[in-house]
Design goal:
Blueprint: E1 3-8, H1 22-39, H2 44-50, E2 53-54, E3 57-64, E4 73-84, E5 87-96, E6 102-112, E7 114-115, H3 126-134
Antiparallel strand pairs: 1-4, 2-7, 3-6, 4-5, 5-6
């Protein structure tokens, strides 16, 4: 079942026009990703640099459907899926809560499991595979 992270848009998320800056949209998704991992029981300190495994983003795509402004209430869904033995993708949907609720953006990121020391691909860890299959 996809994980959903709820958040309110803050002033710091917006640009001079009062709209969420496009790069901040990716930050919102990454925040939801981290929250999803934590809720699944992954030790973020270990996962994000405590071991030889890292999972950097190798590709990202974004489709912005409507502006988001300071004070808007959001629901960000996180839907991971395995791509190969060494990579996975995450589909994010950012919904501006209403009424009525309106889809505001679709974001997709691809991640590659990599050895920090060897700088080569590694198989996805059992913890990541469990997170992907449970989501």
């Amino acid at each position: 079942m996809p994980f959903t992270h709820h958040r309110t848009v803050r002033l710091a998320d917006t640009d001079a026009a009062g709209v969420v800056f496009f790069a901040r949209t990716l930050m919102l998704c990454h925040e939801a990703y981290e929250e999803s991992l934590a809720r699944a029981g992954l030790d973020l300190k270990q996962f994000l640099g405590g071991a030889d495994l890292i999972v950097p983003i190798s590709k990202s795509e974004a489709e912005y459907l409507r502006p988001l402004c300071c004070g808007d209430k959001l629901a960000i869904t996180v839907k991971p899926s395995a791509l190969t033995a060494t990579s996975f993708a995450i589909q994010f949907e950012i919904t501006k809560l209403g009424p009525p609720d309106k889809l505001a953006a679709r974001i997709r990121t691809e991640h590659v499991a990599t050895s920090v020391s060897k700088r080569e691909r590694l198989p996805l860890s059992p913890a990541l595979l469990a997170w992907i299959s449970d989501s």
